[in-house]
Here is the input.
Amino acid sequence: MSKSKEQKILNTLKRFEVDVDNQYAESLINDFMQISKILEFLKETDKKSFNAFYALVEKNLELEIIVAERGKRISGLQKGQTQPKNTGPKKLSAFKAKEEREEAKDFSKQDLSEKDFQKAELFRATFASSILRNANFRACKAMLACFANADLSGANFTGAKLDKANFRGANLQNADFKSAKIAGANFEDAKIEGAVFDGSNYRLAKGLKI
Here is the structure.
């Protein structure tokens, strides 16, 4: 593992050393180092084993994209007020409920053909069984979104973040996934004739046979 990667891991863990037992922290660092070394070795020598091990690590660690979403909110609070406006102790539950609604937008069973979702925040949104022919999802953030059984023929997902999204049974004929992030996304039983995955990390997707 490169020195720069090793230093980043050490710096990240060091920020929490006050709250963590030194012996436990040292053991945690060693585990990270070993996992990283194994992944790098497999990436160079055995692609199939690398993909399997990577998927196992991803499945058993807390999902990075969820942490990232929460991190953005925490970072915003740290830069300014200690908590969002109008969210005193009596309103925290209402604030949390609003946050969850925003994270799980429901677009299921609708005709949204040629709809523009470019750069939209669609974290955990559901488009199940919707008609989305030629819809524009360029550079959108739709991690953990559900597109099961949707008609996405001709849809554009160029540069979109679709980690862990569900495309099971969807019609993806002639859809464009160039440079999309689809690690852990489920493409089982999806129709992908004519779909483009150039520059994407399609090898980390589930059920995608190209």
